[in-house]
Amino acid sequence: MHIPVELLIACNNNERKAQKELYETCYKVFMPLCMKYNTNAEDARSAYNIAFLKIIQGLAQVDIEQVKFMAWSKRIVTNTLIDEYRKQRLHQAHYSARETDRELEIHAENTTNEAESNFGYAQLLKLIDEIPETHALVFRMYVFEGLSHKEIATNLSMTEGTSKWHLSTARKLLKEKVEKLENSVIIKQVV
Question: Of 61, 91, 121, at which residue does a domain stop?
Fold first, then answer.
């Protein structure tokens, strides 16, 4: 997606129509990213709005004619999502990092539906939402965003080893959930 330099200059000059146009253009690109990091649309929209405000305010500090706007703005959105996660983490009660096998069975049973035989991206996102939040966030950052464990560790204030552990545990939990999902489909087909 290409954003005209004239639009960015107009946004930097606080022209509301230009800011609205940029908001709507960026919304289409960044809202799916925000949805990956949030469990509901309201939180995702809130995070996007915070990020967009940072983008508008940041235009004054960059060379608008030289900046690669999409890469620059994506970094702002990603960092905002990480910051929002940190804020939420500070306000939430601590929970156990691992669920018991019984809890995993309960969650796996709740994920069954008629379309299980066509397991796809949307179902994977649904399963990711069912694993503990920190595991899911590290998984998303590593798999979807392509961040290294060093970058994840820096962004989430943890060690690289902890980041690797969260990713490994997330993969293990997701693998178990997918296997249970596949087994339930096979059993339904036999019955």
Answer: 91
